[in-house]
């Protein structure tokens, strides 16, 4: 069930309150409250729910890039440099998944970085990734 209403955020003084749209989506076991600006009135509540669901997938992707692949800081400031860093992280994750058959985790990517800077040897890397040394 989906419902929506116009609400006001702020003080009791109507001159300083902010009109917002509250969309409520009831699931089988939970409910989701979405708040958006009043100007979105021309969009249906179902469409707003779909927009937020798709936006959440984008947020999860960036969380995965930053946490799992270790891209906490951008190495470049230009859009082209950031795109290159994202592409390289994705290529590394795909190669690792292709080699191990598993989705890469934070520790696997961490161990690869340790190996590349010389803190871990090949035996430790293979052990962490769960592959045989002759497969590496």
- Report the count of strand segments: 3
**Uncertain runs with pLDDT below 50, 5 residues or more?**
none
Order of helices and strands: EEEHHHH
State Rg: 23 Å
Main β sheet profile: 3 strands, antiparallel
Question: How many domains comprise the coordinates?
Answer: 2
Assembly category: single chain
Major β-sheet strand ordering = 1-2-3
Mean pLDDT: 82
The helical percent reads: 40-55%
**How large is the count of helical segments?**
4
Distance between the termini: 52 Å
* Overall geometric form: elongated
Strand residues, percent: 15-25%
Walk me through what this model shows.
This protein is α+β, with helices and mostly antiparallel strands and 136 residues long. The protein has 2 domains: 1-61, Double Stranded RNA Binding Domain (2-Layer Sandwich); 69-136, no CATH class. The protein has 4 helices and 3 strands. The protein has helices at 45-68, 79-100, 106-117, 122-129, and strands at residues 2-9, 18-26, 31-37. Strands 1-2-3 form a 3-stranded antiparallel β-sheet, covered by helices on one side. A hairpin with an 8-residue loop joins strand 1 (2-9) and strand 2 (18-26). Helix 3 packs antiparallel against helix 4 (122-129). The N and C termini lie far apart (52 Å).
């Amino acid at each position: 069930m989906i419902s929506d209403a116009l609400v006001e955020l702020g003080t009791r003084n109507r001159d300083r309150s902010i009109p917002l749209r509250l969309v409520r989506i009831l699931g089988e076991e939970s409910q989701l409250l979405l708040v958006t600006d009043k100007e979105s009135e021309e969009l249906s509540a179902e469409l707003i729910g779909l927009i937020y669901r798709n936006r959440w997938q984008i947020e999860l992707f960036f969380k995965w890039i930053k946490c799992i692949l270790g891209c906490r800081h951008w190495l470049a400031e230009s859009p082209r440099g950031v795109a290159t860093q994202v592409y390289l992280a994705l290529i590394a994750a795909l190669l690792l998944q292709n080699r191990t058959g598993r989705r890469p985790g934070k520790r696997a990517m961490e161990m690869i970085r340790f190996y590349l800077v010389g803190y871990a040897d090949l035996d430790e890397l293979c052990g962490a990734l769960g592959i045989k040394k002759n497969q590496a």
